[in-house]
Sequence to fold (273 residues):
Amino acid sequence: MARGGIRAALVLLAGLLAGPALGQALPYHADPDAREILPSATPVPAIRFLTTADFPPFNFRDAGGELIGFNIDLARRICAEANIACTIQAWPWEQAAAALADNQGDALIAGLELSPENGGKFDFSTVYLALPGRFVARAADIGLFDPAKLDGKRVAVRGGSRHEEFLRRYLPQVQLARFDSEIGALAALRDEKADAFFGDAMRASFWLNENLDCCGFAGEPYFRPNLFGEGLAIAVPAGQAAISHTIDWALVRLKDKGVLDELYLRWFPVGFY
Fold:
């Protein structure tokens, strides 16, 4: 997951986390075959998690300086499920992957992109949160929204993004309104300068949290790993099979117990599925 264009938008949510949202569609990414995973045969006494402190609502510091967020809660629940000791240390983003490679930690939970380059250095857990693309429409248009009827309509999108590529590939008849950022594109929808928005659903959910009277998600989520990325997973140094296995085993159990759903509802007041 490339974070450069995401970080600024995520900051919008840091002070806006409300109570759990009800009635949301919940993510489910556990491989059905993974239900047969057994505990690791090699004991793992502890996991030293590395993260960052600049990526709300996943990992950031609250007003009192405490490290909190979706990823922080998830790391702790993984260790509790596996009944092992757990430490979590924050690093600057530009140093975090190198610290993992240098044995400063056992696992990195900070949105490291599942790229071929990173795949050559690290192993990755199962994806625990995918990142779909979604349309956003003004409230009055949501009930009748149909992407097949967007021909000739003006759709706001971040210029140069994979979401623009998606529209060019699958909906070539729409009129693209290109903006420098998702926030600018969403504001154009709000101000009736576009008929719809298409982009990263997670980032859009943070904007919607402040603009619920205006707009909302319309239609279904689009999962295109080849375009939008595979999602969020935990990086482990290559060859550390016992740690990777323990994390995957814990993720399956946490999903089965409803813990992943609980964390999703807590940290994403406007769900993006």
Remarks:
- The domain at 7-130+231-267 is CATH 3.40.190.10 (D-Maltodextrin-Binding Protein; domain 2).
- Residues 4-22 have pLDDT under 50 and may be disordered.
- The chain has two domains: 7-130+231-267, 133-227.
- The longest helix spans residues 241-256.
